[in-house]
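Continuing from the previous page...

OK, I double-checked the sequence for SpoIIE family protein phosphatase against my notes and this is the correct one:
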Amino acid sequence: MRKRKEVFRLFRVSLQVKVVLFVAFVFLVFAVPFIRYNAVQQQKEREDLIARNLSVYLDAFRKNVEGYASDKWGQVSTEGTSDVALSTTFSRDIDEKGLNSFLENIFGTDKKQKQLQRQIEVLRTAIKEQSRQQKLQREKEQKLLVQRQYMSIQEYLFTLTNIPSFSMAFFVDPNGYIVFHTKPELVGGKISQTNREILFKGYLPRLYFVRLQRSYEAFIPLYDQSFSQGIVSKEWQGFLRDVSEGKLFRSQSLPAEVRRNFLLIERFDEVYDRYFDVSGNLTLAGEKLKSKGLMTSSLVRAVYTLKQVFDRYKRGQEQVLVSNQMTNLVRWFQVAGVSEKEILQYQKWYRSRKIFTHTNLLKERDRQTLVFLDSVERYLRKYIEFSPKTKKSLWRTTDLLDELLKGYVSNRVAQDKVSKKKFTEEGYTAVFEKSYFVVAMQNAAESYLKLRSYRTRQREFDSSAIHELFQYLYAPYRTGTVAILLSIEDFERQQKAVELRSIDMAVFLLLRVLLLAWIFVRFMLQSLAKLAEGTEEIASGKWGKQVEVFSYDEIGDLAERFNAMSLRIAKMFQEVKEKSRMEAELESAKEIQNAILPQQYPQVSGYLFSVYYQPQTESGGDYYDFVEVGANRLGVVVADVTGHGVGAGMVMAMLRSALRTYAGGKLDAARVLKEVNPVLYRDTLPTMFATVFYGVLDIQNHELYYTSAGHQQGILYHPQERKIRLLKGGGMPVGMVESSIFDPEIQLYKVGLRQGEFLILYTDGITEAKNQKNEEYGETRFYEAISRFASTDVHGMRDKVISDLLAFCGDAPPTDDRTMLIVYRA
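Thanks. Re-ran it with the corrected sequence; updated structure tokens here:
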């Protein structure tokens, strides 16, 4: 270690060099990042400007595309489907007309069949005539329309080339095929998977601006205008607002009864979907039940009623099942083949009032969430048949999805049916792939099932799962996405040029700062050298050395404080000498005091003794003693002299000497204190006196003759009685007043000591001890400790009582001497 220190001294660096290096370090740490931050901010401002320009271009492009709505360019025909997308046969209230219509769908009527046949014949004739007259005209108009649209949008894309750092602009269809491009040879190709994911995740009709690896991309999705203005879109926008405002899925879970209700409802829906389709007609499985005579009109009527009740419950309208409805539900489950064990479980829940018994369980925020889940479910079941118990690959789309998709204009054709040249020249607006829409519906149903689990158990998802659902819901209605790519190479070159200029400026500034720092430190060190010389003289023993520094700054203040410190050190050195002398005297007083206190306990047959004594300072004012009064008699004394230190110790010594002098042969303890009082009153200061408890123990008769001179009352405690008895007190302190006043106040008392009984004497330092909250230990805690720790092992009893005291006081310092004396008659 010594060698290492010597090596370090060889490389000693002056303060001047250190300050210069520190200034350079601070400059590099703070100035250079600031310059870098300034360059980044300039780039960000440039990007923001470009983003604002792109927003204007893209908004104009969207309006341009929507302007072709009258020509039905890229428009999805949702006639007869959009406005009823969120309604089903069972969304109405229970009424006889609706029930009869539902039964007619299943069992049929002759009148209905004849009416349908007439309608079919009329439609067939009209369609044949209309097709013959309009076919050629429609084809001609459609071809001209496509050509006009293609050329117009293609020209518009080319106008975007005026944007600074422009790279390319294109329009892609939902499948990822490029429909229009500023580079015509790219039309018909497919964009990269990375770009496709970016375009697909931005599902809301607003501007998105992202940074790719080598470019910036601004894009905006376009949707069919009739969808954007329809009921479904508006309802979804409302749900999305609720999500952003935190109004949906606010609870961690629904109430327990509500979750059980939905377990039953989901089981009912699962069985129902097996035998009825979305329009309320019988499936093949339902037809089999009907042929067997199990699907009766009364059973169908009951199922219809239950379906309506459960549909309302799913929309947040709490319901109560009456007994006959529960009976019908059990009958339906039995007919549908639900296991007996499962049916018994539902019946047990119903009898124990655990399902469909209580209302007012749902909060308004829970109802909003249930409305959202029900609305999405009814929408999805129009277009896809799905179940959590079947594989995703087995989920099938309904005929309504085909109706939705066939509304696209005729130029949406499969790419493999059109040549590359024809695709480019004639400008087909999209490439239709049904699998895209089917996968979107399947993914939406999968996301919905994850969210639906909230109805039966605690939520296990976050808001991102809700946005994922809407991402798939919006997919079938997207007509395409317009995107613009900007190169970032120009931005990077400009940023590097700014950084290089900033670095040159930083180096120039650094050199100037270092030169000024060197001059300043050189001047400052001249004054510091004088302070160093003064420090060396003080170290050599020249206390009070003064240094003259003519500098009106912090160094001048330092010199003044140095001079003041030098004078204080000289003064403190003298105080240390004086303190050392006083400490030596206190140590001598402590040794004397320890010498006059009893060194061992008296050996008395049938009695045990134990003492705890802890002075606050080196020389304490508490005093205890055992005095030989005569044959079979032992004097016991505990006293507390006012004050602490040497003076209290001297008074304690005088009290001990006088008490031992007058105690010999006297059984009358009061007489002894009366003889001691004049001695202390005469030979001590008026402010010095002592409280004393003095008793003479008659060992043969087991009696205590005692008196008290203003001291704490003695304590008698017998473990069998578990009761504290206080000895009589009173009197005035010894040495405080003349005998004419003192003697009348001092009385002699007698008390017998029973076998197994404890006598405890103490000073006020025990009961008045305080903790850090300034609370006193107190007599109550002291009495409880005596009762709790009383033992024939008097030393162990002493230690436990004192431990309880110290635990109460904690880290609070003692404020008085502490003494406790225990006498036990064995």
